[in-house]
């Protein structure tokens, strides 16, 4: 049986590729379960960053209609997407989405949960929830609105507007647009994080997420900052940087 997620790890970069190109990488329950498992088990001690992409020139066309019934049973797909996006948001390393072709429906939620989104010029974004009679997952809508703003979410979810890559960049849906396949740019960016100190990365990502959620507590984060200032990881990083900057090197 073909794996619905292709997992590889090189130079500290964990690559998770949605691998159902014949279905434009539609988010089946099986694929979402496999992706959730990979996000839990494939992170190694030397993993510096994660790249999520799609095979065959597609990111994902969204929920798999063969798993949808038009009844309350469809909450299973929403729950599975929520589980995956929750794991993405709480990973202690950067998660980069490499987006080619369609990024639709629940796949938009998945991409929006990543820390950085790189799109090729072939990418487009659409969430046809109201066309399908859906009130999209309220928790997801709240996160999307905090991240990209009410106007953009209204255009995508209520009007069902389709954004091409340039529109998505202008609206803040993606972080950058590149010519050619997006994976190469995403992998290069991910590799560049390899020398960063893991504890500082995790803390900084956690702080930014807390600010975005509106539950930032200054005293708790100041305490965390002080812990990191005298951590063994930081001392080692400072010594390494001193040697690198020493005369004659």
Describe the 3D structure:
With 249 residues, the protein is an alpha/beta fold. Helices cover 46% and strands 16% of the residues. The chain is built from ten helices and nine strands. A six-stranded mixed beta sheet has the order 1-2-3-4-6-9, sandwiched between helices. The chain has a three-stranded mixed beta sheet with strand order 5-7-8. Helix 1 links the parallel strand 2 (13-18) and strand 3 (49-54). The protein is globular and about 65 Å long. The N and C termini lie far apart (53 Å).
By DSSP (H or I, 4+ residues per run), the number of helices equals 10
Order of helices and strands: EEHEHEEHEEHHEHEHHHH
Instruction: Choose one word for the global shape.
Output: globular
Query: How are the strands of the largest sheet arranged?
Result: 1-2-3-4-6-9
Tags for this entry?
249 residues, alpha/beta, three-stranded mixed β-sheet, 9 strands
Topology at a glance:
Elements: E1 5-10, E2 13-18, H1 29-41, E3 49-54, H2 75-90, E4 95-99, E5 102-104, H3 106-113, E6 116-120, E7 124-126, H4 138-148, H5 150-158, E8 163-164, H6 165-170, E9 176-178, H7 182-191, H8 198-213, H9 218-229, H10 232-245
Parallel strand pairs: 2-3, 3-4, 4-6, 5-7, 6-9
Antiparallel strand pairs: 1-2, 7-8
Describe what is shown at a glance:
It contains ten helices and nine strands. The chain has 249 residues and is an alpha/beta fold.
């Amino acid at each position: 049986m073909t794996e619905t997620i292709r997992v590889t790890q090189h130079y500290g970069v964990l690559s998770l590729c949605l691998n159902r190109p014949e279905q434009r990488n539609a988010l089946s329950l099986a694929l979402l379960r496999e992706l959730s498992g990979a996000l839990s088990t494939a992170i190694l001690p030397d993993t510096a960053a994660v790249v999520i992409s799609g095979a065959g020139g597609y990111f994902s066309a969204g929920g798999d209609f063969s798993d949808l019934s038009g009844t309350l049973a469809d909450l299973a797909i929403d729950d599975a997407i929520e589980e995956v996006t929750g794991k993405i948001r709480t990973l202690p390393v950067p998660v980069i989405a490499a987006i080619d072709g369609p990024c639709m429906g629940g796949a938009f939620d998945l991409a929006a949960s990543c820390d950085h989104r790189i799109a090729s010029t072939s990418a487009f974004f659409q969430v046809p929830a109201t066309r399908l009679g859906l009130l999209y997952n309220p928790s997801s809508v709240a996160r999307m609105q905090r991240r990209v703003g009410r106007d953009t979410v209204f255009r995508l979810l209520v009007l069902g507007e389709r954004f091409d890559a340039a529109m998505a960049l202008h609206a803040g849906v993606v972080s950058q647009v590149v010519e050619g396949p997006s994976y190469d740019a995403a992998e290069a960016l991910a590799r560049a994080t390899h020398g960063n100190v893991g504890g500082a990365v995790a803390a900084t990502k956690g702080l930014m997420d807390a600010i975005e959620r509106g539950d930032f507590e200054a005293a708790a984060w100041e305490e965390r900052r002080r812990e990191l200032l005298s951590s063994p990881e930081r001392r080692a990083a400072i010594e390494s940087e001193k040697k690198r900057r020493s005369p004659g090197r």
